[in-house]
Amino acid sequence: MMARRGHGEGSITRRKDGRYQAALTLENHKRKYIYGKTRKEVQDKLNVALYEQKQGMLATGPQQTLGMYLERWLEQVIRLMRRPNTYKGYRSVVNYHLIPALGQIKLQRLTVEHLQAFFAQKQGQLKPSMMSFIQSVLNSALKNAVKWGLVARNVASLVELPRAERYEGQILTVDQARKLLEVARGSRLDVLLLVAVTTGMRQGELVALHWSDVDLERGIVQVRRTLTWVHGMGYVEGEPKSKAGRRKIVLSQVVVGALSEHKARQEVTRIKLGEKWKDHGLIFCNVHGGYFNPGHVRYLFKKLLKEAGLPDVRFHDLRHGAATVLLAAKIDLKAVSELLGHSSVAITADIYAHVVPEMQQEIVKKMDDLYGRS
């Protein structure tokens, strides 16, 4: 009498179509089927599956395409657990790069070769930093697929890419920043840009500011939230980038004065528009009191740069400019880090490594003055 097979044992039979089939019993009492043209081919595949099962590597999840899985992962994990900006960036990568090129491949059949060929095709079309970001998104997705038991391993972690060089932002000099503010006077971005260049706040933090966040008498602003526009979700207010992002910033008198005038002008507009004004309590809003679209802010910013004859910098480079000016003025690194809302001083030191050596030279000079020998 033939012995009954236990968990992990497989059987091979020949099908009516001439192919061979192996049935492997899994730990959950379900069966996984393996097919091949010859008995030896199926036996080899079965041996591999038995080994992977023994090592705890065999994926037992349902078959689905990479595209189907990425959609589930985005909506069930990233949208619920991560910041809106993160979801927005991941969604863009999935829609414009991963699904068009790899979406139809079965998730469990995705290989390192598939991904290397994909990135080889993108070479020259995309910047190394963008390719690195795409790999990061895919790596995160497949790491979750392993966790869910859908695949045996994360093939994205095995892909090799050219090293991405850090983007060196082109910052405005103090004189150029003054020129920008001069040209911006009276425009929609007048006070917003003044706050940006003096505090180093992120664009999303600026357009999320409410009047309840600022104390004009004490000259203090509280950064509590950030604003993002996400396709399919609209405007989303979320937490700052890190815990340290929730911070208190002391404002200069010129900023306090500008904000006071800005508030008075906004009140006149509110009264003039009457019911057409949608009061959200925002400091920097659109013409009807609603959210100021971040994309429109960037458009107006670029227009002002061109009008002022200044370099075509990113809005985010105003933040880098503020930090660089402060560090060059020998302001304490920790104080600058807290102003920017970095989660650690090490991050600030790493980003502004080109400025820190100048500060270290001042320290060395001070030591020579203090302990120099005659």
Fold and architecture overview:
The protein is mainly alpha-helical and 374 residues long. The protein folds into three domains: 45 residues; 93 residues, Tyrosine recombinase, N-terminal domain (DNA polymerase, domain 1, Orthogonal Bundle), CATH 1.10.150; 141 residues, hpI Integrase, Chain A, CATH 1.10.443. It has 14 helices and eight strands. Helix 7 runs antiparallel to helix 9 and helix 12 crosses helix 13. The radius of gyration is 29 Å and the shape is elongated.
Produce the secondary structure layout:
Layout: E1 10-14, E2 20-25, E3 31-36, H1 39-54, H2 66-81, H3 84-102, H4 112-122, H5 128-147, H6 174-184, H7 190-199, H8 203-206, E4 214-215, E5 220-223, E6 226-230, E7 234-238, E8 247-250, H9 253-273, H10 294-308, H11 316-328, H12 333-340, H13 345-351, H14 356-371
Antiparallel strand pairs: 1-2, 2-3, 4-5, 5-8, 6-7
Radius of gyration: 29 Å
Q: List the secondary-structure elements in sequence, H or E.
A: EEEHHHHHHHHEEEEEHHHHHH
| Low-pLDDT segments | 1-9
The count of strands amounts to 8
> How large is the share of residues in beta strands?
5-15%
* Class derived from helix and strand content: mainly alpha
Mean pLDDT: 82
The helix content, as a percent range, equals 40-55%
- Described by the principal axes of the CA atoms, the overall outline is elongated
Order the strands across the largest sheet as they lie in space: 1-2-3
Alpha plus pi helix count: 14
Shape-level CATH architecture of the largest domain: Orthogonal Bundle
Distance between the termini: 101 Å
Total of domains: 3
Largest sheet: 3 strands, antiparallel
CATH class of the largest domain: Mainly Alpha
Q: How would you name the CATH homologous superfamily of the largest domain?
A: Intergrase catalytic core
- Looking at the chains present, what oligomeric state does this protein adopt? single chain
Q: What fold name goes in the CATH topology slot of the largest domain?
A: hpI Integrase, Chain A
